[in-house]
Each structure stands twice: as C-alpha cells, then as structure tokens.
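Protocol step 4 of 5: obtain the predicted structure for the target chain.
Materials: sequence only (see below). No template structures provided, no constraints applied. The aim of this step is simply to have a reference model before the mutagenesis design in step 5. Sequence pasted as it appears in the construct record:
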Amino acid sequence: MPPLNCKVGPGPGRARRMFCDDLPAKGEEGDSIVLITQSRRWLIAVCTVVALAAAACGGDDSDDNGGGAAPATTTAAPAAEAPDDEPAATTAAPATTAAPAAEPEAPAEESKPPIKMAVINQEDGLYAWPEVSENTRIFVDWINANGGIDGHMLEMDLCTSGDDPESAQACAQRFANDDSAEFVYIATILNSAPVYEALGPGGANKPMIGQMLWDVPDSLQPGLYSTDPGLLPLAYEAIRFAVEEDGASSLAVLVDDSDIGEATLAVVDYFLSTLGGATLTPVKINMGQADFLPAMTRAGVADSDGLVLLIAESAACQPTRDAMEALGVGDVPAYLGDWCVGEEFRTSGTAEGWRMVTGGRGALTNDPQAQMVRDVYEAAGAEPPAGLAFAATMNMDFLRQVLELAVERAGGVPTGADVTAAAEEWSGSILLGPDTMDCPGVGIWASTCNSAAIVISLQDGEWVALEDFQLIDVALFDPLLG
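Step 4 output (structure tokens):
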C-alpha cells in the first residue's frame, strides 16, 4: 500500500475527518478516515482511528459551576494559632515560693498556601465518565493525606461536562478567565477542540495536564501533556502482536457497519503493509445485532489465525465469545482493546485467552502497583477501579510529579510557566506505566509523552502481561498526516 497523504478536517455531524488521497475505501468525498471514538475506549478501540467530538463540560461562567456538579474542594485545615503570653502558673507549696513562669509554646508552623487544581471531566450525556471524577478526588485526597505537594494542599475545582460542545467551551472559558487557575487538569473530554481553543497557545495559554488521547488531533496538541499513549500506538501494537508475536498470516475482522468501520479497515491495512502484510477478511456488523455467528461465519474465523474485534464496546464481548464457541473455535485468539477486562468477563471466562492492548498495568491481577491502586480505592471506601480509572491514575501520578518539580522551581505555589517548564523538564516513570517517558512528545506528536503499549491476557482467571511495554515509534504514523 502506498504512503497515505492525509490531513485532518471537519466531518459530518459531530465527527472529525481525516482526508486521505490514497485510501482503499471510497466515500462520497473521496477517501477518508473519520476520526470518532467509541464509548469503551478506556481508553480506546483497538483500531478505531476515530474520536467523537461530542463532549463537554457543563456550565457557564457563573459561580454555580454552569449547572454541573458543584466544585469539589479539598482544603487543608489551618494550623492552630499558638496562644499569646499566658499568665504564669503558681504552685500550692511552699506558699512563699512562686512557681516559675511556663515556657511559651513555640509558634506552630504556618500552613503553606494551597494549589488550585482546575479540573474538567465529562459526566453527563451519552458518553460519560463520572468514575474519572471519583478517581481524581480519591487521588487528590491521597496526595493531600501524604503531605500534599511539598506541604501545599491541592484544592480541586471541578467543572463537569455535558454532551454538547458549548458546555465544554464554557468550562474551558471559565478556567481561562480565572487568574487563580494556573493550569487545568483534563480528566477526559471527547469534544476537545473548543477546550484547546480556549486554554491552548491560541487562547489563555495555560498548561493542560491529563486527557485521554481519543483522537489524532489530541495527540498533536501543543500545551497538552498526557500519559495516555493515544489511539494509533495502541491500535498498531494490537496488529503488530498478532503478526510478529503470534505469527498470524490471516485475520478475520469484525468491524462496525459504518463509515467509521471503513476508515478503521483502511488504517489496519496500512499497519499491515508496514509489518510485511497479512490477509484480512473483514465483515461488517451492526452493534444492535445480538447474534454474531452469521458474521463470524462469513469472516471465516474457523480458517483464520485470529479474530480482530474492531467494535469498541463491552456489549460486543459476550456475543463474540458465544459465536466463537458455537463455531468450535474458542481457542482462536482475539485481538482487541481493553473494553472486555471487566470483572464479569474475568469470572465468566468470556475473555479467556484473548489479547488486549492497553497503555498501563492497572488490570493485571498480581501487579504490585495495580494492587496499591486498588488499596487506595478500598481505603477511600470506593468500588475497585477499572477501565478509564486506571488511565486516569497514570495521569494523576504524572501531575503529582510535575507539580513537585514546579513547586521546587517556584519556591512555592507555581505559575503556569512553572508548570509548563516542569512538564517539559520531567522524565521518569509513573504508577502503572512504563519505566521511562518524557515530555513533550516526539516531533509533531506534542502531547504524546508516552507511546508505550502492553498486551495483556486472561489466563486461568487471572490477568497477566504477555510482553513488556513496547515503545512505539510515533514517526511511523507521520504518513497518515500527509
């Protein structure tokens, strides 16, 4: 397949579209990759080079947080004031001897001023992640309980999102106009364009930390620093593992029956061309369809080396397993994202033997860092984390380390410039992530501070890693941008 010559532009409805000159799939306006997300990406659909532009942050610029959830604030209790000169105490005997005056108490150390942490998260609408707001609160409390950022407590000011671009813009503009918000933590927002316009270099120019890199433009955004590998590295690793590690030469593919599916197949075909090639037998399927057996039969799963599931919905997990068992091919490996790592799929064995690509170790059964995160949740009285909560944990640990550098640099509460400098100076490892990463990303992939991916699998009821983190060279994807 020749190199793709693509550029990102607006698409129909709420989609973004990547226009390409040489894609095999044809559309009304020429060849195109539509960038639109699915709901359970955790992060991400295995090979969906697409991202919904619907998202937001509920509210306007008023003090009521724009109709969203009231800002959640965690403050350190003020240090008790030392008493002024107390009268000297006296003893009862001997009567003629006055007791020595009590030593004045040493003044209590003054508490350090807090650091405001502006947060935007999508909690309402068709796609909503209230669990990521909970994750953020849990780890803010955990950081504060462990001394804060060099004694500075984090005060969380949360603006929640709706299901419309206007609310995303309203939340971003609220923090853009707030002089006390030196940086903004983006928990997760699908419709990110208006947020970047308000907060990025063309707007208030405030550093943005976090975000799930749902869409290719998310991975290219200056002023955004994220530990999420993004769509393309994760999609590429799923296909690479099938071809290079499992030796697959023929792959059956189930894909959503939409222009998204067409675009996804084109990208998978491009990936395979860079890996030496493997044959694909794609079959489109409607997500409302309960029985996947006819589609799997047409895709020739029984005669293939593996099944690539490009329907990024947890609702597709059980129908996929049922159809594979009906065909007698339950041992054929399936390659997908981590939307089938829920506890129900572990206990039922639905995902047994499947290969799932993810950006972190959070789902692993016996990983010490994953257990530590589960312990933090348990101590907070919360349900065990799953899915996006693990990716959000990685971003929160990254934020903690960046703020530590920024406070050291500023000698106190950091400015936005201090946070930016710290983010670009920082390098190291984070909870659940690879051993090393740094910011900004390579070349035009400015916000992609971490391009490593790992493949996990359910083996005898436990989630295990099938490989170490694989660092993906994001320059491989430059041809997709033209």
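Step 4 remarks: The longest strand covers residues 115-122. The domain at 7-51+231-362+469-481 is CATH 3.40.50.2300 (Rossmann fold).
Proceed to step 5.
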